[in-house]
Structures are given as structure tokens and as C-alpha cells.
Amino acid sequence: MDNSEGYPSFYTFLIGAFFIHFCLLFFDFFFKSCSHYPYIYFLANTGIQINPLRITWFTSFFNRQIQKWGAVRPRIQTAWFSAGMWVSVFIMPISVFLVIHTIFSMMKSSLQDEKGFQQTLLVVEPLVPGWNLPASDFGYYLLALFFSSLLHELGHAMAAVREDVHLVGFSLTIFFVIPVVLTHLDQIDTLSSVKQLRIYCAGVWHNIFLALVTAVVATALPWFLFPFYDFGTGVQVENVVKDSSISGRGGLLIGDKITQLNDCPVHGSTSWQECLVFALHDTNRGFCIPDSFIREHDESVPAKHLSESVIECCSNNSPHHLCFEYVGSESEPLPLPQHSCLFARKVVELSSSTCLSASDCLPSLHCFRPSLENSTKLIRIYRTQRPVVLYLGGPAEIYNSVKTSDFISLYSFLPSALPDAITKLCQFITIFSSGIAILNIIPCFYFDGQYIIRATLDIFLSSKVPVSSVRQAISLCVTILGTLLLIFYTITMLFTSV
Predict the structure, then answer these.
(1) What is the pLDDT of residue 284?
(2) Mean pLDDT, to the nearest integer, of 186-203?
(3) With contact defined as beta carbons under 8 Å apart, do 130 and 473 qualify?
(4) Is 129 helix (H, G, I), strand (E, B) or coil?
(5) Cβ within 8 Å of residue 91, ≥6 positions away
(6) Where are the alpha helices (DSSP H) in 225-290?
(7) Which of 95, 133, 327, 421 could link 367 by a cystine bridge, Cβ 3.0 to 4.6 Å?
């Protein structure tokens, strides 16, 4: 299960959606039972139907526009849909293989109980918010599903218009909160098998095209936005959790550009996370500073042991000071005190390099390491145009409290959240659109694959199996097998994901 942030608002949204459905259904039943003619007239004119957890709107308003689009460059459109027909027929066995491969991979992973096994395999996995997707991104899922469904059905409509099929209209159905667009066509069965195949494959073909376009946009977005946003030179802070230890005075601020964490350079979100992981496993490093600084700024008091590995040599009135332990050479006598209470920020700013031993520093410098528990780190976060942030704690707190963006605004009025939102939406459209294409091409009842396999078999088996009823029986058997495959796939995913 995905335990990401956003669960309270996600569940609040679902409860609110259920309440709206309940209210609409109640008033629909009430007005119809009372024969409220203005309401019935309104439903008839608008094409709205209200059912339990389902709202449908049917319209023919866009039919004329689709007819105009279908008349533009007819030869190019015919070639376009013919290409989609061959591509869809080609990927049908690939999709079936991919689903079968996913079933066996999940079963093998479940039997072996190897954690992380699925991540190394190419699988078709259903995406469910709150299960294997962050619930906080639910709005992106709905938009991605709507655009994927819209372009899918627009493909059917455009191809049907090119083949002189009557376009009845479109319907938008909201199943609870999931939007689905459907195209209503008439008299497709009277067409030749090739024309039918063009129409049936157009939806999958458009989903493939949409997935490719959004993938390219998500990848090339940094170049498109270069005059307004910088990319690859750091990360920009989008949000900091209020009252967290990394916020407040001297902490990170929204809009800060982070370029380095300790000695690890930050180029983007990936390197930012890698630097945090490295800081988590790295030992506490010391700082190379001159002995004159120690003699002038040491404010130590009698040292006391807080634990076996931690010494406290600072008074309670020195919140910005840390107790530093001198890391000397075994072959040389100890020239400085073993422990010194020093102002942490001055130590970091004065130090030219970090050290693990005395040999890491120049001969004129000495290595002083903060006396801390192994789980507590002194983390330096370097940012442009502002002083370095010193954080005392665990890197996990920074990871959970700070939200960053790869896009760095070059102008203060441009939010970094905008390109992130575009990138995320394109990524989810790519995922949903390609998923719809893969699953919808499989021969299964109520899927496009049911009609595609029938038209395909009519084309390729007409010479070998001249009887039409026999070809229909073969396509029915293939469709039954495809339906059973998807049912078994769904059951396998449910049981192996629990």
C-alpha cells in the first residue's frame, strides 16, 4: 500500500463525491415521482441521465465539427488511420504476451516472496490511487484519464466520419468520480472488414500517439521553458512543512535554490535524494580549521559524557555552539584541547574542507569533528544568495519536510510548480493512455479488441475459411479466451498485491 501524503483530503473528496451522487439521485427520484415536468423537460433537452453513482450526458453538439474535420485532407487521414490499423494489429499479440508475462511474473514473485522483484520486470499493473499511486495526485489521474478517453473516442469518431458512418453523438459518463467518454456510431456492420478495422483501431492508435507525444513533451519541457526556467543546476524549494526542524529562522525558505548538500553537489531532484541518502549513511565528518581560531573562540566548559560516544562541553546558554572533538595524529602529541565548544556556523564558514582524519587537512590546519550520535548529522545545505543552512538531525526529516522542484524560476513571478504540474500531467497521460491502448487491444468482451479480432480474422481467413459463421465462431472463441485472460490477470493482481 502507498502511504503517501494526501490521504485525508483524498478520502474527504471521495466522501464528498458520494454525498453529491446521493443528493442528485434523491432529487432525481423525487422530481420524477412527482412528475415535475420542468425537470423532466430539462433532462430531455440537455441529455442528462442520473443513475446510482453514475451521471451521463449525451450530446450531438460536436457532430458538425467532427464532420468538418473529417473532410480536411481525406487522403492523409485515410493513410493515417490505415497506419493505425496495421500498428494496432501488430501490437495485439504483444499486448497479450505482456499480460501473460505479467501474470507469471506476479505469481513467481508471490511464490518466491522476493521483495522488489517486480521492479526489475516489464509488467502491466493496474494503477489505483492509495494503492500503488499517491492519493495526493488524484486530480492528475482524473485529468489524464479524461484526456486519454477523449482522444480515444475522438479517434473512433474521426475514422467513422472518413468511412461515411453516421455519427450519433458523444456521451460523457462519470462513474462515481471517473470520467469516461464514449462515441456513439451507427451502421458499422454494413462496412467492409478493412473499413471496420480502421474505425475500431483508431482509438488504440490515437492512445499510442498521445502517449508518445506526452512522453516527448515531458522529456523536452526543460528546453521548451529554458528562457523562463533553469534546469539541471540545482533544485528549488517549493514547500517546507510548517513547524518542522528545517523551517523557521535560519532554515530553508520557499524559493531557495539548493546547489549542494554537504560535499555532494545537487543538480536535480534525483541527485538531491541521492545526497540525502549519502548523508544518512556517511559518518560525521570534521572540519579543517586553524589552531588560532580554536584559541580565540573556544567557549568550552568542563566536559561531561552524554553517552559512550557523545561528549558535551558547551553550556546551556550556547544554543548555536557545538562541542567539537579534536582528531589528532597518533604519531604526534596533542597540541590542542581534546574538546572545544565552538560557534558551528563560523566553523563551517571558515573551513576549507572536511576531514575524517588529521591527514585530510593541510599541515597548518587541524581536524575537528562534532561530537554527535551516529544517527544525528550536522548537515550543510548550500543555497544561492543566502547563507548556508546548518541542520542538526536526521536526513529523513529533510526528505519528508522539504518539497523540491527541478525547475528553477528565473523570474520571481513564475512559480516552479507550473512546469512540475505540466510534467506530472504528461507523465500520467503517458501511463494511462498507453495502458488503455495495451488493455483495450486485447480480444475481450466490451473492449475494442473484440471487434478488432473479428474484423482481422475476416480479412486474413476469408480465403481459407469461406463460411462467415465459422469465422465468427473462431473470433468468439478467441474473445472468450481473451476475456478469461483478463479476468485471471485481475484476480492475480488482487491476490499478489495484498
Answers:
(1) 86
(2) 91
(3) no
(4) strand
(5) 204, 208, 437, 438, 441
(6) 269-281
(7) 327
